[in-house]
Amino acid sequence: MPNIKIFAGNSHPELAQRIAQRLGTEPSKVVLKKFANQETCVEIGESVRGEDVYILQSGCGEVNDHLMELLIMIHACKIASAERVTAVIPCYPYARQDKKDKSRAPISAKLVANMLSVAGADHIITMDLHASQIQGFFDIPVDNLYAEPAVLKWIKENIQNWRDCTIVSPDAGGAKRVVSIADRLNVNFALIHKERAIANEVERMTLVGDVNNRTAIIVDDMADTCGTVVKAAEKLKEAGAKCVYAVMTHGVFSGPALNRLMESPIEAIVVSNTIPQHEKIARCPKIQVVDVSSIIGESIRRTHNGESVSYLFGNVPL
Prior knowledge:
The protein is built from nine helices and 14 strands. By secondary structure, it is an alpha/beta fold. The strands form three sheets. A seven-stranded mixed beta sheet has the order 10-9-8-11-12-13-14. Strands 1-4-5-6-7 form a five-stranded parallel beta sheet, with helices on both faces. A two-stranded antiparallel ribbon has the order 2-3.
């Protein structure tokens, strides 16, 4: 594509390669290294003057290093006279720190938004934000894409009796997401309510809805340590579910997550490739990956050509 440059940070070069391939181009040249004192060094390897620049960096792995890398790349392109700089962040870093949930807590997601704007980003493309309100932390356009169309496609292609399933939210916060998927599939949904009767007591889970003799599909935006999703799966099995699947957009899988999944009653956990998963799949064969590069690539093409992106909210591009 003319007048378009796609740069990749160190967080997920494979996804950048897939997106560039879809757009019929190659990732542009950039050298990313560290000085002896661990400061990040960025060298843009080709002219970006008057170009439409897209910088892909996911908030995973060494999150702070990757975020700093992204900020420096945006700044470098901006002062090299790029026409427009778009930060493509499939998994937004610090997204769970989006409110003051206790005294003196920071709202780090807002701080990250300020840093991106000050660095010189003109536009943000991200996927399945932990809270949609994060879009309001920016004064620049934000396209929050959804993995939902790709998830629906996976469910229809891989779960034989999907018409007889129940979509389950592991907590009250994800109810809206679950209702949307259940409506699109025209199936029932259920909700797991967590409560602590007294402080320091292990939380009790209450299932609201019926999963008896049905396939249960747990849907959430992120799988981190997998404590909640594994407890939810055990609760669903107790309630008579035939089999349990889990579908998450961002597979972080930190700490004891993989061991918990292997020991859990979950048949398969499906995540998107917003975060690289090769090493984790080798350790946990229950993980299956849905490719979202076509959705992100198409959003870049539409943004570059000045077309509407809303088609992607309900459809997987061919």
